[in-house]
Specification:
143 residues; mainly beta; Jelly Rolls; 4-stranded antiparallel sheet; 8 strands; 52% strand
Length: 143
């Protein structure tokens, strides 16, 4: 078991927008800690969603039908790792669990998986470019 914890400082997001941060992360393991705190700009309310595939970045409708190898974007709910986390203005979005939540990146191949996590932040109101600090922690048994 390898313990993992990393802080990503000054992740940028625009108020009134949806932004997806693609951050380096283990590709398989247990997430025990997620903390997102606004670090700059006027305090705003925000929500956080965490996904295990880059397919959530582009939510446009597309073709591909039922072909799993087709060029289409399935429902983001299929890639959601946690329920949406909400934070009021000036507050912190936080998930802490000693047992952890299972995580496996769905992109890449079995022999060369993507070592990423996708965090979507939605800021429904306000203006300007805002900075957020993100802390992710957990453990993994693999590279």
């Amino acid at each position: 078991m390898k313990v993992y914890e990393r802080i990503y400082q000054d992740q940028r997001a625009g108020a009134g927008d949806r932004t997806v941060w693609t951050l380096p992360f283990f590709y398989e393991g247990m997430i025990q800690k997620v903390v997102v705190k606004q670090a700059s700009g006027a305090p705003v309310a925000f929500s956080i969603d965490i996904y295990n595939s880059k397919n959530v970045i582009d939510r446009s409708t597309s073709s591909g039908g039922g072909d799993p190898d087709g060029d289409y974007v399935p429902d983001p709910e299929m890639y959601r790792v946690f329920d949406t986390m909400q934070a009021s203005a000036g507050e912190v979005a936080r998930f802490l669990d000693n047992n952890g939540r299972g995580y496996r990146n769905m992109d890449g191949s079995q022999s060369l998986p993507d070592r990423k996590i996708y965090i979507e932040i939605t800021i429904p109101s306000g203006s300007g470019d805002l900075g957020f600090d993100v802390c992710l922690g957990g453990w993994t048994d693999v590279g």
